[in-house]
Amino acid sequence: MYNTAMLTKDLVAASSKPLVLSILTAGESYGYEIIQQVRELSGGQIEWSDGMLYPVLHRLERDGLIESEWKESETGRERKYYRLSSEGHKSLKTERQQWLAVHNTLCKLWKIKPVLT
Amino acid sequence: MENQTRFDLNTAVESWRQELAAQSGLTADNRRELETHLQDAMTRLQGRGLSDEESYLIARHRIGRPRQLTEEFMKSNPAQAWRERALWTAVILLGFNLWQTICAVLSLTHFFGPHYIFVPEWVQFYFPLWLDNMLDSWQLRQIVLFILHFLPLVWLVVYATNGPLGKSRSLWNNLTASRLRVVSLTLGLVFIVHLLYAFFQKEQFPKMSAWNTFDNLIISASWPLILVAMITWLKPQRQKTV
Which of these, B181, B154, B180, lies nearest to B165 by C-alpha position? Predict the structure, then answer.
């Protein structure tokens, strides 16, 4: 039986790229903070296993969508900070269009007024 | 009587660090990043009033088991596993070759004295024309061999740099479709080249035993194999698109 409150594994995996890119539009961030943001924004519906985020971040970095740098935080702890690259901005634009297309199509099928444009 | 042992956070983190270090698929940078994450998670949990032990256990559980983590990291970067294997292959071959060269040098200096200039096989591999003292009738063969020696390397370098051939020719695309195919073809080329080399040596020195011919073949072949392994190590896996 499906738990309607939680997203399926496939959907979590598919949405990881637009989520990470969207979070990084607000400025640079690091793994732990990204996970916390996703958890809070989704109200706990999107639950990422902490260690699984890093392969996603590394893949995005290899694809040139994000860049990383080791920096010392205000607490003195060194962290690897990620930021969006210009390619990442372009990719996010495309992702946004695609996800909105899916969203709008489903809204039409389910006869719900789209909440996003 | 107190049965419980006192929890030491530093020891626990060190033990976790060693568990990660034992995973060959994780780089030092990966481990450092995961450790930072563990520390961040523990700090947050401690801030909520949890003890050191509770914070450590929860943070560790949330990050995931080292083995699972490694599998995920390797899935996202399969070339990493190849690099690791090729590196060890190269190290073993290098050790084997050096050992053989040292033995040969010691043996020759023992029989011919220290004035004997011995040129190891691997040096001849790079400079077969200049250092080989066989520049007489079969000079042409040497030139051919020289070119053939580098053919597998040229092959791999073009493949590694995704040269123009890789984009335009269907035959090339077919030959380089998978890493296994490229490595097999390259090793095949290396083998043919060195078989030819051994054959010419046998012709030049008919008294040379079959074992010596084979021995020379192995010594000569090991260095190109190291280079093949190193280039394979450097080549990242092509990304699959959905």
Answer: B154
